[in-house]
Protein 1
Amino acid sequence: MIASEPLRLPWEYVMYRIGVDIGGTFTDLVLLDDSAGEWQVAKTLTTPAAPEAAVAAGLAELLGAAGLEPGRVQRLIHGTTLVTNAIIERKGALTGLITTEGFRDVLEIGREHRYDMYDIFIEPPRPLVPRHLRLGVRERILDDGSVLVPLDEAGVRAAVRQLAAAGVKAVAVCFLHSYANPAHELRAAEIIGAEAPHLWVSLSAEVAPEIREYDRFSTTVANVYVRPLVDRYLETLVKRVRELGLGCEVLIMLSGGGVGTVETARRFPIRLVESGPAAGALAAAFLAGEAGFPDVLAFDMGGTTAKACLIENGQPLTSPEFEVARTYRFKKGSGLPIKVQVVELIEIGAGGGSIAWVDPLGLLKVGPESAGAEPGPACYGRGGAEPTVTDADLILGYLDPSYFLGGRMRLDRAAAEAAVGRLAQRLGLSLVEAAWGIHEVVTENMAAAARVHAIERGKDIRKFPLFAFGGAGPVHVYRLAQKLGLKRFLCPPGAGATSALGLLVAPLAFDFVRSYYGRLDGLDWAVVNRLLAEMEAEGRALLGRAGVRPEDMTVVRTADLRYAGQGHEVNVPLPDGELNGAAAGEILRRFVAEYRRLYHRAGPEVPVEAVTWRVKVSGPKPAIAPRRAGQRPGRPEDALKGCRPAYFAEYGDFRPTPVYDRYALGPGTVLEGPAIIEERESTVVLGPRAAVRVDDRLNLVGELV
């Protein structure tokens, strides 16, 4: 168990906070001084075998550089891709399933929908639980919560013994219609605790109390599959943090854009499935909004992956479901469904460490495999021999081998040339042609993903400026903006650690969901009000234990509605106060308006039915003072570091390119391309058909011509 209960301070204001984001290649940290409106960043290579080691090293470095006593830090917020990676790589615990007799193949059958109608070799997502570990017991609860067949407790005991004998470490309990009545699942958990107390257990009525068996079963299985891994990790992480002298509260970024307690993360780790990427989207929304751009396409390119997320009216789009471990990245339905609130984004294997290779047709491909942090790109000099995007960018002159990570890590150009050179020979290209090919292919991959993300949501991507961050994002922002037909882009200061900053602008928040099905004109509103009140009370209690005052809590209530007979729902906000028959008219009006907004047409003349009810209880958003520009020169020549050859397709060759120190650029400074603008964590590559202006928040605001 995690020891030492931290001091819980009021949520709305603390003096020092730290955000920690663990990526596939680098671990990023941001130390925020609320009183001064300033932040400092640190970046260290991720240690995949023990991620907490990189966190500890980064914290020690960050505190040392700031000259700050550990005890003065009031909060540490952490984001991680541990859950996603464990599911994709199948590194969770050996898991069993106990379910209603006759339903053990729900995980295998899935939905009747085929994600590719014409692929005769279609590969359905492989369940996390093999069939011989999926056991059925006699019981049956109806959809109204009444018991048709009592739970066969002897059958549960026999199933537990069989699973324990098979070496299972975790068990998911998923009974039919348990969202309406969890009694049988709760009793099964008691029996498992008595028969095999060493087993980890998750109940579908607690993890995802929603209608639709396949989604509920899949989410619950995934939750318990990663519970042992996440529990060990968080216990070790908090221990390392305490050893450094930080007695502060440790909070975890949730996929929906809020943060939760360590206790919540340990019980429901599936809520962390998009923890790290969600932080990046929040940071983009905050920083772009501060710069006067409430609508942007957030583009985060790190060492292993690239993410794209649409921001509208200062808020990232969210969704109540997600797919992980897709067989085909762009094909919905080819992955495992997860019913949790997530920031809606698209993610592909396109980062600085993405490996370039030649397919059987002799075509150049980049990713999704990555060199990661160990061994890393060839130019890292850590044993990597495969050509990567970072190697190509170094050869093209975009990166300074002596100033990577501010000079803390020297890049080996000869190793990069050797790795890319071997690829060039296979392709029959010159070294530079192969390097440019890698740069182009990975950028086109990201452009394709961004287009898919926008089209699936009915958005015209050309209306969104590109907000680029991550260590590699600003290197590729110019070409990506060109490919997407965008005229403007932004690159924030400290772009390489922007996701870690996003952890510090997220409110403490909890999402709750209950399914209660019925037509709007025939609902028992007493039941609806009870469900909503229970969810609100649970959320308020959790926030109260975290130090949030009742008057600072915000409650948002919504419902998933559909026309009778439809298979998908539309989420609409609910009126305030107690709901009744009179409120049904207002709910109907809101549904019709939202349906028309989404589909640009009126719905059929049929009744409307409610499927699921949702409540989100949030604390106040932590305030961050605008970053102060300070006294900086405004003339480009004052920031000029020198000149080096860099390759640009417009010239078809290398050109002497001025290199600027970003830390010496003041508000109002204008630079015309081609140019390279360097900071410790990232590099902005500006092509010849663009110019940038430094705004009063020190963002680089670019224009393409």
Protein 2
Amino acid sequence: MISISNLAKHFGDQTLFEGVSLQFNRGERYGIVGANGCGKSTLLKILTGEEGASDGEVSIPKRAVLGVLGQDHFQYEDTRILDVVMMGDAVLWEAMAEKERILANAETHFDGDRYADLEELIVQADGYGLEARAGEILEGLGIASAVHDQPLSTLSGGFKLRVLLAQTLAAEPDALLLDEPTNHLDILSIRWLEEFLAGYKGVALLISHDHRFLDNVATQIVDVDYGTIKVYPGNYTHFVVAKRQERERREAEIAKREAEIADHKAFVERFRAKATKARQAQSKLKAIDRIEIESLPESSRRYPRFRFEQRRPSGKQVVELIGITKSYGDNLVLHDIDLTVHRGDRVAIIGPNGIGKSTLLKVMMGEVEPDDGLVEWGYETHPGYVAQDHKTQLGGQPGADRQSIDTWLHDCCPEQGIGFVKGALGAVLFTGDESQKKLSALSGGEAARLMFARQAIEKPNVLVLDEPTNHLDLEAIEALVEAIKAYDGTLIFVSHDRWFVNELANRIVEISTDGVQDFAGRYDEYLARAGAD
């Protein structure tokens, strides 16, 4: 379906990848993985023609329709949500629009032949079912039918991006090229998308940092690393094992050859001066020259070293929320919520977007005042809070966004020397001159890593995290999981990442329109009890 030959991409002296020849086939779903900045998004942009390659060729059938997830929702602000989605099938949408224009001008001029052609095209393409399909996709992505006739401007930013995803899916393209499609989706919507993709007949290329999504959807993994791109069969879990085994095999082969050279050299040194062994020594020298040792390139993957520890244990009861109610205008987001967290709990708060999960954490942390209810923190509790919007936390004061990251971090530990701060920054992958970077210049992933560096320094005995995996690559997410597993304090977090939730939570609190479900156990156990997967 899509083939690339000898593909390369360079930015100045930096090589993202080169010498790449691959074919992406119909019926396969390719999960694209690699460190942030390795070239995953660039690969998709080259395939869509948005960006040129430095070398090589891309071959896509001329009539193939590519479904690409857009990001510019502003062009549709005044358009009905259903219409935005139906516009994804551009040919069919234009045919339907032209038919309506012909009908509107029928009293003065009616082009019967053109009308008949359009009607045939619409019927053959199941155009009269397009609106129903668009509605089903929107509902699957968590956008209720009650708002489908409203303009796109009535939705929040995250839901607008869901509409653009629905637009891409509704087009029924021959190939789907989706960059982080699970961003802004809650758990229910991600599961719906997985089911949709399972039934998709074309070729799908998907960039994602969601372990479970990649495991549930991908039939092949496209690994962007070592300055090249390689495809591994199977899902993400299979890929991790296969890549590790491949690296170990290559390292063992190099070690074997190095040992062989060492043996030959030892023989030569031992018998160089012995006339009876001179011929054998020369033979060994020639054998050394014939042995080739490949150099293993350095991986672009980098794992931050997160570390969390509590300054001292808290009291047995960590925090109690009693009758928390909060509205924003006419929108009631929390109603009479009760929650008690005890020392050692690892509480995952889950539920659909817009149900009030982040608001609950903000009320808990005193960032937002509830309309009713009470928050009581327990004895000797010292919570550390990482909000979903890292940049608001980083640059909350006027002019703070112009502060360098080492100065910002030093402000939270003024008793420590600058060497300590540099070490803390180095642990989360800010090395050399990067420590002078301004807060305003940080990417989402960099801002997240900096926030976790601060938590490591402040040593809270309660970690309160709102969507902590947002913006992190797979390596950083895995490092964060290992650090939290080693943390002996209390954890309260909101996340849509099911793998992350299952790895860390020993208690699931699900908020829905029906109330609060509080379950003691892992996420998989909670799903099994609910009869879900």
Protein 3
Amino acid sequence: RRMLPFIVLGDGNDSTMKIYWRDLIKYGKNEIFFRVDHGLESKEGYQFLPEEEENNSNANAKKYVGNQFYNSTKYRFHYKDRVLVGFTAEKDAGEQFIGKKHVGFDFYTFTAQLNNFGKFKTIVLGDFRANFGQGLVLRPEFGMGKSSYVLNVAPRNSGLKKYSSTDESNFFRGAGVTARLGKFDVTAFYSNKMIDADTVNGTFTSMYKTGLHRTESEMTKKHTVNQQVIGGNITYTFSKFQVGFTAVNTKFNASLQPDKSAYNYFYFAGNEQTTAGIHYRMRLFKLNMFGETGMTNNGALATINGFSFSPSSQISLVALHRYYSPEYDTFYATAFSETSRINNETGFYIGAEIRPYKRWKISAYVDTYRFPWAKYGIDAPSIGTDYLVQADFSAQRNVSMFWRFKYEEKMHNISQSTTTMPALEPIRKASLRYNLTYTFGNFSFKNVIEGNLAGTGTSEWSYGLLASQDLSYSFRGFPLKIDFRYQFFDAVDYENRFYSYEKDVLYAFSIPMYYGLGNRYYLNLKYEFNNQLSVWFKIAQTVYADDRETLSTGNESINGNRKTDFRFLLKWDF
């Protein structure tokens, strides 16, 4: 009843208010972020040899040219959701900031976005992203894949949007517009930027996407190939139906020629590619259908189609089928799949979410897939299956828990094989996880225990065990929040490894991998001096107890059995 005065049912009003300079100055919000990361232990890449030693110049050329500090500086401005402007400068650890090899930050990005500006729905300048349909043609973003949120199989955001990340590869640099013409949204964009690659005589074997330029070898790959992209989308939206067409053309000033082997035999080769596709959504009573079909200029096809259905408020179902031809290899696809590449895969996914009783929720999915051609590490066609069942229980408002069982089976090469034909065997992994979350006053707790078993067709099962305790506390009358975790892990084999999300400073993303025997703990602090100034600080350390004397390899190797990281972030609003 309190909401009724603010709600109107009927046709929307497309008219938008004008933007005045005085409003931008008076009501616009500015944000500055300054972040520094540093590893406590010295890595091999920072250990230079004495200059007087013989032949040391060649050895030092392979070392990092910069210091161990990571630094990024970001500026953000926004006026409501109408005007958004941003600037980012970043230097990775090992990259030089001031020296003979390089001066300044290694990566710069500028972005600006206007929304609902006259007939234009969106205008982007500088660095941006473009996402349409299910991602078979155009969605250069990070995808999480399958998860316990079993109904989330289709992307939700679409269109042009500003780019504010520090990822140095998955974005466009240029300009784009989306105009609203009745029930049509028409988008066009153009990008022209330099990308990293190891070029030889006008060709390159692959794109270098790490964004790291720490050694002289890595620096020679920086901005060696020009990439131009032109694309667009037309989407028609009716009350219960939406259909769209997307096309994108990519052109390089050098020829991409991968070193051919079995797994990449069908990868794209050349200096120009065109990809186009049709995507759709439609709703029929309680049934929602969606999908997309894409094709490259060599005739390779990829299609993904699915539906969601809720026969009652207690039951929700989803099903999805995908077919990605081995020859379908485009640059900006991110869709539902078992692997990160959208090609050489056929699969069928079924998910269900059921609320049988009050406070209970049961989630489950089954995904079966097939790779009709060889993949990296799998030298023959193969199959795989994933299962997940999770039961959530909310005992009280401040107490919740879940039990999760997951099983997966896929193929890999038999390394001991001496035959001339490729031989495969299955890898099986089963895991069980219990998660308890509860709050008491200003305290928040989370307890996790997870165990897994992994084995192949010829070996015995190996085990993995992980247990963690999280504690969060927000002080009353004092603007400080503390997050602490202690975690123990014992992963006997690499196939028993764990991935565990952990809290971090603002806009940082951390999911470490754990393999071996050891423990990890971190302390994350947030302090607000006032409404304008906030700081975050994190210290994390991993200590191994499995008699290892070094960590990692190459320039990243550390002498000892522990790794310690510091992270600091300052945010200033004005």
